[in-house]
Each structure stands twice: as C-alpha cells, then as structure tokens.
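TICKET: design request
STATUS: open
ATTACHED STRUCTURE:
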C-alpha cells in the first residue's frame, strides 16, 4: 500500500463535500464491519456522514492520521495493530483510555486530537444486553494483552465478586493485577492472576466461573487457550462464555458448549463500542436516536 491508501479506499475527506467524514484505521482493514455499522447509525440518526476505511503502512499510522484530520476528517476508529500508536498520537486522553493503555476512538476539537477507548464499555453493555449479571459474579478473563487490559476497569466498575486474569505466563497478568489493584479494592473485588496451567488445578481453581471471557489472540488461529482439563474446572452449566472474536464459533466457544455453557461471540461488543464512538462524535441527542441492538440484529440476519 502507498501513502495514497486513503484515496484508494475512498476515505479522503476532501471527496465528500457536505458530509462529515469518519474512518476506521487498521492493517488489514478490508474485513472491518465498522463502516456498515456506522452507516446504519447515520441512517437511524438521519446524519450526512461518510465512514470509510484506512489502511496505513504498519509504521505509518501517525502520518496517515495526520493527513486524514488535516483534510477535514472528523473522527477515527482505530483497530489492530494501531491502538497504541493512536494513544501516542492523541493530544489528550480520557481517563478510561489511560486505564486501557490504548485508544480505539479519536476525534478533533478546536484543532486538538482527543483519544478515548470504548471497547470495555462496549463489552459490558453487550453482556448486560444479553442478560449477564456482572455484579457479584465470578469472572475469568483469559489473556493479559491489550484486549484484556481494555476491559478490566469497566468490569470492575460493576463490582463482580472476583476477577481472575489468566495468561500463559504470569508476568503480564501480575502486572495487570498490580495496575488495577486500587480500583479492585475500592470496588471490593478479589482481583487475582493465574497461569493457564493453574486453571487445570482444582486447588488453584476451586470454583467454576459465571462468566469466562476470551481476550487472547488464540481464537484467530482457531486454538483455545483452555486445555481439556481446564475446561472441566472453569465451566459449569449456566456459565456464560464470551469470545471477543466475531464471525465464527471458535474452539473456545465449542468447548464451552460441550460443558453446557451459553456462548457469545464479540459482534455485540463491536457494535456497542461503535455506538459509544458515535456518542463521542455526534453527542447525546443524536446518540439517543440510534439503536445498536437493531443494528446487531441486522448484521446477524
Ligand atoms: P491484544 O492487543 O489483541 O490483546 P496482545 O497484546 O499481543 O494482543 O495479547 C495477546 C494475548 O493473547 C496475550 O495474553 C497472549 O498470551 P502471552 O502473553 O502468553 O503471549 C495471548 N495468546 C495469544 N495466542 C495464544 C494462544 N494460542 N493460547 C493462549 N494465549 C494466547
């Protein structure tokens, strides 16, 4: 791809006179459902918006983002692998973007670039919409990378009984426990780390979980982070297994089904994080006119 990528993907704001232009930036990006989601939102709120795709070179996010905003772009969603670049690019971060350590939503106001992270709020809203009671529940969060970090604070805000972060190696999970220890204490949540191997051990994992969230990258290669033995420890009938990946029944989801758990992919989280981006960009009044659950139903139909 060249620096003309924005033109190739029809996202140059100069081409859309009379419309506010937004885009999602990632690499690769052709698979992204964000443009169709935002097109539905724009129709629901009767807004003249264009939402396109940008595929910056891997080391070229800042240049692409700068050109986009300089050409009149109003706001940008950011996905893999640019969420850290977006955090660095923003002049000002919201509190939740700082806590998440990554930015998925950018916008410009008075020449200043703001960065927020709506992923965690999106996950929580999707869980609540699916009838999951986070308060006082036992939650297992698999993975300790960026996707995991982004959802910890919004989960803690709902005061689960415990939140266990499990990763292949302990260092990253321990770091996250340290980072969120104060918030967990304030919300009276037992926040703990485990290795994935610990999940096989009934002494280290004495209780099954109400909610198991897969935030590892394992689903992308059709692997599960859970061994067959771990599966018997962590799930019980009535558990809810949530995979942040969408568009397929992952190995993790199949394991959960075999244990009698309910499952969900991450499409609802994608739609809900987009709804929060719409709110940031267009304001409360217009955001009250969009219906993310109807958009989700359309995407699934
Ligand atoms: P992201 O921003 O998507 O979270 P990341 O920061 O690279 O990406 O983190 C990927 C997470 O998936 C990590 O927790 C990683 O575990 P390690 O820290 O041990 O590398 C986890 N992961 C990736 N592939 C995995 C697999 N096959 N099984 C289990 N965990 C996996």
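STATUS: resolved
RESOLUTION: sequence designed for all positions
ATTACHED SEQUENCE:
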């Amino acid at each position: 791809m060249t620096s003309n990528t924005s033109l190739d993907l029809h996202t140059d704001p100069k081409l859309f006179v009379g419309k506010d232009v937004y885009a999602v930036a990632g690499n690769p990006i052709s698979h992204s459902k964000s443009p169709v989601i935002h097109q539905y939102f724009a129709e629901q709120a009767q807004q003249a918006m264009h939402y396109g795709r940008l595929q910056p070179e891997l080391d070229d996010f800042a240049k692409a983002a700068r050109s986009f905003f300089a050409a009149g772009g109003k706001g940008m969603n950011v996905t893999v692998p640019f969420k850290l670049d977006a955090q660095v690019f923003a002049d000002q971060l919201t509190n939740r973007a700082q806590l998440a350590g990554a930015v998925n939503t950018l916008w410009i106001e008075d020449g200043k670039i703001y960065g927020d992270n709506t992923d965690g709020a999106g996950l929580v809203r999707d869980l609540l919409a699916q009838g999951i009671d986070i308060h006082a529940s036992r939650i297992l969060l698999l993975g300790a990378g960026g996707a995991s970090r982004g959802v910890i604070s919004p989960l803690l805000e709902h005061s689960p009984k415990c939140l266990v972060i499990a990763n292949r190696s302990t260092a990253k999970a321990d770091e996250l426990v340290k980072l969120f220890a104060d918030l967990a204490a304030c919300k009276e949540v037992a926040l703990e780390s485990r290795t994935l191997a610990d999940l096989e051990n009934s002494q280290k994992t004495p209780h099954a979980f109400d909610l198991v969230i897969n935030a590892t990258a394992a689903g992308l290669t059709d692997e599960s982070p859970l061994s067959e033995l771990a599966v018997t420890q962590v799930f019980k009938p009535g558990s809810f297994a949530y995979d942040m990946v969408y568009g397929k029944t992952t190995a993790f989801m199949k394991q959960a089904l075999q244990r009698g758990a309910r499952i969900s992919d991450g499409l609802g989280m994608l739609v809900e994080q987009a709804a929060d981006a719409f709110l940031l960009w267009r304001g409360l009044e217009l955001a009250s006119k969009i219906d993310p659950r109807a958009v989700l139903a359309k995407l699934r139909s």
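CLOSING REMARK: The pocket of 2'-monophosphoadenosine-5'-diphosphate is lined by residues 143-148, 167-169, 172, 216-218, 223, 225 (CB under 6 Å). Residues 7-117+268-300 form a domain with the Rossmann fold fold (CATH 3.40.50.10860).
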